[in-house]
Amino acid sequence: MSFVANVTRLLDRALPVIDAQAHCDVPCGIYDPHAALEAAQTVIRMTELIQGLDLSDPASGHALARYTMVKEEHGKKAKDDILVIWTDYFKPEHLEANPNLHTLVWQACKLGSKAKQNVDMEAAVAFKAAIDEIGHIFWETKK
Length: 143
Prior knowledge:
single chain; mainly alpha; Four Helix Bundle (Hemerythrin (Met), subunit A); 6 helices; 73% helix
């Protein structure tokens, strides 16, 4: 057996290759802000439901926990979806045509955090509006 083959066998034993699973960074072109908008709408709905609870009723504690969990999950999903579009889809020419895009995405994510951390309808509605604006820019780039 050759020296190279021996070294390769030794390396394979010492540092075995492990399969990894991950979302690829290949520009597949499958981007759509619709899921982020739907998730942001869920944040609004959960905020409405939380605001409508009678917290003096002991049974409402379970509903509060569930609504809060769903609001958190969907707020994170909306932010994640927008960040993927921002980092993987938008290109320099999109930013040249929309110089406020970086600020808009940053503000949307900050609003998403505020809507998750609080029971704040104003923040939830503004979060969805910011995502809607990002979505409008996204669809304009597709023309």
